[in-house]
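Why do we care about 3D structure at all? Because function follows from shape, and shape follows, mostly, from sequence. That is the central idea of this module. The next example makes it concrete: a single protein chain, its amino acid sequence, and then its structure expressed as tokens.
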Amino acid sequence: MRRSTAAPDGQDVLKNAYVALRRAKALGIGQSLTFSPDIGQAARERTTLLRDLRQAFERRELSIVYQPQIDLSTGKIIGAEALLRWKHPSGEFIPPDRFIPIAEQSGLIVAMGRWLLPEALRTLKRFQQAGFEHLRMAVNVSSIQLRQPSFLDFVNETLAETGTSPNFLELEITESAAILGAGLVEQYLHELKKRGVGIAIDDFGTGFSSLSYLDRLPADRIKIDRAFVNALDNGDPGARGARIAEMVVPLGRKLGMKVLAEGIETEAQARRLGELGCDDGQGFLYARPMPIEELKLWLAGRAST
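And the structure:
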């Protein structure tokens, strides 16, 4: 009688153990994990997605969209955030929270960042030459990029190559990335600050940073995560997310930083953030992330009003 299933051989066991080990490491220090078919399936899907992502990047199939950032008190545009987008050959748009972690784990994020920053600054230069002289460009930087020995040289060379003043570039890092990098990241951030490059702490409130460490960072801006912004008009003023948003604004001011809220979708959220003293914001209430040609039309429309 033929068996319907076969016990894994030694090589398969080692592969499965390695998959479980990598997954446990990704969960953090001191974690353990037992291999299961679901974990194996997820690993195969990540491998396939990474292969497709490498091919998409090599074929220049990734794109950049730009989401305007607004001064909440005046309604004027102050800049834009450059965001990566990926449309899979299947026609599906792969969300950044799926492909960016894979790019970081594989190291592909370094090459992607070396393409993104110059492209974003060339776009900024075009808009400044078109009359929007005071716009700044915000670009996300992962901890993997920050740890590259050549990162500072790369930023300096890109600024020189694109003719961009450092004052119009803002690099966004997550608070967890800042903490994990510890001394090295802090050193790099101070060097960038000396050059005049702006530093923003992204997704603030979602990491595990200490206030004493944040106080040492040469950051110019804190970005309130969209999850906390969404809680501001859910009908419960005492909701945890709402309380965090209400605490972050005065905290940012105490630390000498401006505060920008992400994911603003309603007038109620914008009004509450304004009452709290939040400086800037971005979100669907103002504009969705858009390709450069759409951003041109959007800017032209704002300029004519």
